[in-house]
Amino acid sequence: MRGILFASFGTSHADAQASCLDAVANALLEAEPDALLGQAYTSSIIRRVLLGRGQDVPDVRQALVRMAAAGVDDVTVQPGHLMPGEEFDKLRSQVVDCAALFDRVCVGEPLLSGTADAERVMRVMARHYQAEQGRAVVLMGHGTDRFSNVVYAAMNFHAMLLGRSDLYVGTVEAQPDLDCVMGLLRERDYSRVTLAPLMLVAGDHSKNDMAGDGEDSWASRLRAAGYEVTCNLEGLGQLPDIRAMYAEHARDAEQLTVAAPRELRRGVRHAA
Fold first, then answer.
1. Which helix (H) or strand (E) holds 6?
2. Which residue from 18, 38, 46, 145 lies 20 to 30 Å from 264 (Cα-Cα)?
3. Are 26 and 244 in contact, with CB atoms under 8 Å apart?
């Protein structure tokens, strides 16, 4: 039996789960309707919060064990992460741990895994946020200390190539940060700024760090600098073109080279 596991960082916001994570998972299933669909969260903190509310969301290892017990022997794991980082490494490690449960295991790439992905996402954002006189659009990404963080600078470059000097990308926890973006904004005559997340879900970072009332939020700092600010709390998972990219990554997923003797696979299945 075929299976598809959509494994994201997760969210504790029910609205974001339905509009973003469930939407992407359903897009994966629409591309392969005969497969058994599963979901997993890689964040242990979010899973603990949800468990306290009575919602038991498995991690990758638990989800794969359950899928194997349900008869899945050929599974594709599609990460919901935007780029290869710590959470994606954790995901791959857990998939490797469970490889013996299946005859075939494939892992798709995160959304932003190459230059073509970065360019395509910026084209999607440029279409979604049409240029308006006197307005800048600032997209908030998460950021990482990994080398893959360079994708954010690349996306700013692609915006420029698209002729969208009004479209900027910044990050919460890396570079370019808001100070960098505000320096670029000051070079042009903007009176208005639209803030939007460059994240799969519009969760805590979007609602607090971006749009919150605190003096350090992006919205508050931009207003203090004299801009009229509006916030769009719409995660990437709500955009059909982004969901299509995840489905394509799942379709093109590469098979793990980890293998185990058939006798071991049977033994692990029995133990599960």
1. strand 2-8
2. 38
3. no
How much is the pTM? 0.91
* DSSP annotation string for 223-264: HHTT-EEEE----GGG-HHHHHHHHHHHHTPEEP-----HHH
Contact 210, 230 (CB under 8 A): no
Q: Which domains does the chain have, with CATH numbers?
A: 2-108+253-271 (3.40.50.1400), 115-235 (3.40.50.1400)
Q: What pLDDT is recorded for position 258? A: 57
pLDDT of residue 271: 44
pLDDT profile of the chain (272 residues), mean per 10: 96 91 97 96 95 95 97 97 89 94 96 93 97 97 88 94 96 94 95 97 91 96 98 96 97 76 46 44
State phi, psi for 120 to the nearest 5 degrees.
-65, -40
- From 81, 142, 205, 249, active-site residue: 142
The 3-state DSSP class for residue 142 equals: coil
How far is 39 from 63, CA to CA, in rounded Å? 7
Q: Calculate the alpha carbon distances from 184 to 122, 136, 180, 225 in Å.
A: 18, 10, 7, 13
SS3 181: helix
CA atoms in the 13 A half-sphere facing the CB of 240: 2
Concerning whether 13 is annotated as a catalytic residue, the answer is no
